[in-house]
Write a structure and sequence with these properties.
AraC effector-binding domain-containing protein, 9 strands, Reg_factor_effector_dom_sf, alpha+beta, AraC_E-bd
Length: 167
């Protein structure tokens, strides 16, 4: 698995919906997140770019883990203002997450989402092999970018980038 080094100069932001994952069913958590995001997106029409998701807790730990599907955004202040005024269903799960500028190793996964865990493990091993360390904070969490639409892309052609903050 090969990676590319990306140095971001500016902080980024994402509009996400915090979901609890039960029994490793990330697909259900993603769907629930989309259902919470949809009314807000329809009402306020924020400038969304790429679909993405954070996993702020380790899915291998016992018990439930958290998963935050959402979208990269270009107008965080407008979205924050919109969230403050929004009273729709799912509001308590929605928030804007900051993504600190810095160095990231980006790995490409092609194939079904249910095989992403193997790519995550390979990516983490590659970081160690390269003599780097993960640099995770609440503003620098690893995340996935979904580069095509699963509703009209064959499963074996889905492309996901895994972004890992490093130091």
């Amino acid at each position: 698995m090969t990676a590319r080094l990306v140095k971001t100069e500016q902080d980024g932001y994402a509009l996400v919906s915090r979901q609890v994952v039960k029994d490793f069913r990330f697909d259900l958590a993603f769907k629930q997140g989309e259902e919470c995001l949809a009314p807000f997106i329809k009402k306020l029409n924020p400038k969304l770019t790429t679909a993405m998701a954070f996993s702020p807790s380790d899915p291998k730990m016992p018990g439930d883990c958290y998963y935050e599907p959402g979208y990269l955004i270009t107008n965080p202040n407008a979205v924050k203002d919109g969230l403050a005024a929004y009273s729709g269903e799912g509001k308590d799960t929605l928030h804007v997450r900051k993504i600190n500028a810095g160095e990231w190793l980006v790995f490409k996964h092609v194939g079904a989402y249910n095989t992403l865990n193997a790519s995550w493990e390979k990516a983490k091993a590659e970081i160690l092999k390269a003599g780097k360390q993960l640099n995770c904070t609440m503003d620098s969490l690893p995340y996935e970018l979904y580069l095509n639409d699963m509703s009209n892309t064959p499963v074996d052609q889905l492309v996901t980038e895994i972004w890992l903050p490093i130091q």
